[in-house]
Amino acid sequence: MTTSDERRAAGREIQGQLWPATLKGPTGQFPAAKLAPDYYDHVQQSAFGDIWTRPGLSVRDRSMITVAVLASLGQPEELRAHLAGALNVGIDREEIVEFDDIATRVAMMAGELSAAEARVIPSLRGTFGRLPAATATPLALVLTELMQNALQHGLSRPGSDTVTGTLVVTSARDNGKLTVTVADNGSGLPPGFDLENTTSLGLQIVRTLVVGELGGSLDIGARDGGGTIVSVVLPVEPLPADRP
After folding, report:
1. Which of 127, 129, 130, 48 is nearest to 89 (CA)?
2. pTM over 0.70
3. Could you tell me if 17 and 89 are in contact, meaning their C-beta atoms sit under 8 angstroms apart?
4. CB of 131 within 8 A of CB of 97?
5. How confident is the prediction along the chain (244 residues), in pLDDT tens digits per residue?
6. Residues in a beta bridge with 98
7. At what angle do helices 133-149 and 99-113 cross, to 10 degrees?
8. Would you call 181 helix, strand, or coil by DSSP?
9. What phi, psi does 177 have (nearest 5°)?
């Protein structure tokens, strides 16, 4: 059992990796440290001193996930800070990452941040494998947005006492392609839905990332048995260690 001082010190060390300038002052050089010292102390201990120091995922991977989630949630001020932090912990476009770990964390965070009425934990099937950061970062954002959209809209059932919703993310790599599907058994698409002309900012961002940045394809339609299924197909080059 760690003490408050130990968590505080661990959190300060993580913050120092992300933002080296914060090590120069006694309060960490954060505006929140002066404006809301109790809240800042809580964040330093619980978020950085506890969650960010847990084994199983590097600071670099946690930083990548945080960037994706903040972008999806539309938090520009925090996103700006964490983008700078991501560069400080060594994230670059050529870095190779194990995306299955990242997808698991994204699914957990999406479930925790979703509407309370949904009460559904996303499940993952298949494998993403190793991806370059240039693909992994926007893909993490795409997954975050698609899962949150399903949990907050399609699967949100106010007044329901039972967990009846399902949200399944399936991934497979074959012949230079990564195919990802996000399927739920929720309320389905609205009548007349048209991806090309959708007014949903989240789906517009997803389409821009998948088609424009990653050079892939995006399809959204009705799921057999009810609900919605989203299919993302991306071109992926085999990495040196993956080649026969």
Report:
1. 48
2. no
3. yes
4. yes
5. 689 999 999 999 999 999 988 777 655 556 667 778 888 889 899 999 999 999 888 898 888 888 877 766 667 678 778 888 888 998 776 677 888 988 888 887 776 665 555 567 788 999 999 888 778 888 988 998 898 888 776 676 545 544 567 899 999 999 899 999 999 888 888 888 888 888 888 888 889 989 998 999 999 999 998 889 999 999 998 765 554 4
6. 130
7. 30
8. strand
9. -130, 145
Which residues lie below 8 Å from residue 222, measured CB to CB, with a gap of 6+? Answer: 188, 189, 228, 229
Q: Which two tokens stand for residue 114?
A: 């979703």
**For residues 111 and 150, what is the distance between their CA atoms, to the nearest angstrom?**
10
Alpha helices, DSSP H, located in 116-225: 133-149, 201-207
Q: Which residue has the tokens 């990653």?
A: 214
| Identity of the amino acid at 152 | Q
Q: What are residue 170's phi and psi, to 5 degrees? A: -115, 135
The domains found in the chain, sorted by start residue, are: 4-88 (1.20.1290.10), 96-242 (3.30.565.10)
Ramachandran area for residue 140 (φ above 0: left; ψ -120 to 50: alpha; else beta): alpha
